[in-house]
Design a protein that fits this description.
The chain is mostly helical. It is built from 24 helices and 14 strands. The chain is 45% helix and 10% strand. α11 packs across α13, α14 packs across α16 and α15 crosses α16. It binds glutamic acid.
Length: 547
């Protein structure tokens, strides 16, 4: 008589270790709190993944635990070269520090609980599934695509619950002899889990975020190992999260419906399951006014690169994400404005259970507040990183004279009336472009119309006198008095009362607008005298004269 052990040995002749042997290699952690981010390397990082990984990392770190990165690449068709580094680089960009994962050169493992890339863990999954075969809780299945399709059609016609369970699973009830016979003939099979197949059973569990859950239990004989020898997500999750000693599985709530299966699998292995914490997705209102998940296919803002390109600072984004994670964050942050966002405790049990609308207006205001707070050096270096990627010509300009660029950026920053020139790093371009002579030249044809009384002929005498007197070391007040005095001599009244006199052609405000447009090629600039100080005397004289 063929035994289950013989079948297991026939399938995995080289697997001699047991789960207990593996457990010894990966002992329980000193600090038992451990969470993980487990993306598939598809070459795209969803902002929702940054959100979830931030929650995972904050949660682990605030309890002094471990946060690890595991790459879930068992669907090799979807794999893109370089995708692992892309994930690591993005997490770094957002300041999400990882303790363990494929973080070394050439994605070498850092940490004692690896390999951290699932395709390198094949032998581990084999140990797990072999145990189940020996116990009769997993079995090989040779059902073809045609057979699977026929069953689907049959179930639809009969209006019965779809799936592979009970007698719908053609290999579930075969004798060990029949299975052994088939194994000799055909190496192309999958390994299925033998579930109880009863849809009247319920699964009750506590989700840290969603609370008490009561769902229909799993009744399907799902695939554990695919015909390519790699595990499905379900088996990999059990083996990996057990051996990596994950205490809290924080993941997207699209996985909530799989929990009954996962709990069943943990029970089949006689292992405790981790705490489940299902994070609701980020939502948007679509064109029809309906709320829906941010979609990778439809929404450019689903891609994290969008935020970088649009000039958001990682800190601004994280600050905003914290308001979604914990509704009490904003108030606590306002009460402690100097505290770093990473120093606030995150309470995942406070998280919204049904999904939060991604609010760009709020993100902008938080980004704006962040940019207003940082030093000009920081503003320079962060905006340079972005410019290097998306605006190389601007990056070249910014580096051509670093001090000059910083001085241009610095105007009116950290002052009481802080006009917040920069909402995103994108604003840097329009705010500083005219400071560079070659760009100013290019802007000349787009220059707004000068006040009508400021014709080339009429302004020449004013410019000649103003040039003589130009002194950029004066106080703001003296400089304005001087402009008024010179202006008066050339037909510009100092105030409305004076302007009533017939001989004035305009007011000092017109004069200031004339200078602003001449110097900057735009009618909207920060304080003009500060701009002039940065431009320097030579440039001011040169630009005023270019009528
Ligand atoms: N690889 C899965 C995904 O990208 C991970 C889910 C999990 O965190 O367990 O959705």
């Amino acid at each position: 008589m063929t035994t289950r052990k013989e079948i297991a040995d026939k399938i995995f002749p080289n697997v001699t270790e047991t789960i207990q042997d593996l457990e010894k290699k990966y002992p329980t952690r000193q600090n038992p709190i451990c969470s993980r981010f487990a993306p598939s390397p598809t070459g795209f990082l969803h902002i929702g993944s940054v959100f979830a990984s931030f929650v995972e990392q904050r949660f682990a770190k605030q309890y002094g635990g471990t946060f690890l990165l595991r790459i879930e690449d068992t669907d090799q068709k979807r794999e893109i070269p370089g995708a692992v580094d892309l994930i690591i680089d993005w997490l770094k960009f957002f300041g999400i520090e990882i303790d363990e994962g494929p973080l070394g050169a050439n994605n070498a493992d850092i940490g004692n609980y690896g390999p951290y890339i699932q395709s390198h863990r094949k032998s581990i999954y084999q140990v797990f599934v072999k145990t189940l075969i020996e116990q009769g809780v997993a079995y090989p299945c040779w059902m073809s695509e045609t057979e699977l399709e026929e069953i689907r059609t049959q179930q639809t016609t009969l209006k019965v619950t779809p799936g592979i369970y009970g007698n719908y699973s053609l290999w579930r009830n075969k004798t060990p002899e029949e299975i052994m016979q088939k194994l000799q003939e055909d190496p192309n099979f999958v390994l299925r889990f033998r579930s109880h197949g009863d849809f009247s059973q319920r699964c009750l569990f506590d989700d840290v975020i969603k609370g008490k859950i009561n769902m229909i239990d799993n009744y399907n004989d799902i695939v554990l190992i695919k015909s390519d020898g790699l595990p499905t997500y379900h088996l990999a999750h059990i083996a990996d999260d057990h051996l990596m000693r994950t205490s809290h599985v924080i993941r997207g709530d699209e996985w909530l419906t799989s929990v009954p299966l996962h709990i069943q699998l943990f029970k089949a292995f006689n292992l405790p399951h981790p705490q489940y914490c299902h994070v609701a997705p980020l939502l948007k209102i679509d064109e029809e006014g309906n709320k829906r998940k941010l979609s990778k296919r439809k929404d450019p803002e689903a891609d994290v690169a969008y935020f970088f390109e649009s000039g958001y600072a990682p800190e601004g984004i994280m600050d905003y994400l914290l308001t979604i994670i914990d509704p009490a964050y904003e108030e606590r942050q306002k009460a402690n404005p100097d505290k770093n966002y990473l120093d606030f405790e995150v309470k995942i049990e406070h998280m919204n259970t049904s999904g939060a609308l991604f609010d760009f207006v709020k993100l902008q205001s938080m980004n704006n507040a962040y940019l207003s707070k940082i030093s000009t050096d920081e503003l320079y270096s962060q905006s340079l990183i972005r410019a290097k990627k998306y605006r190389p010509y601007l990056a070249d300009l910014m580096q051509s004279d670093v001090d000059y660029t910083k001085a241009a950026l610095n105007i009116e920053r950290h002052t009481e009336k802080d006009p917040k020139r920069f909402t995103t790093f994108q604003d840097v371009e329009s705010q500083i472009l005219f400071f560079y002579d070659e760009e100013w030249e290019k802007l000349l044809p787009t220059k707004p119309t000068l006040p009508e009384m400021c014709t080339a002929d009429s302004m020449k005498p004013f410019i000649d006198e103003y040039k003589q007197q130009l002194n950029l070391d004066m106080s703001l007040e003296d400089r304005f008095t001087q402009l008024k005095e010179v202006g008066k001599r050339h037909g510009f009244a100092s105030n409305n009362a004076e302007f009533k006199e017939w001989w004035y052609v305009g007011k000092v405000g017109d004069l200031a607008m004339f200078m602003r447009i001449q110097l900057c090629c735009t009618a909207k600039t920060p304080d003009l005298y500060s701009v002039m100080k940065v431009l320097g005397k030579d440039r001011v004289i040169e630009r005023l004269g270019r009528l």
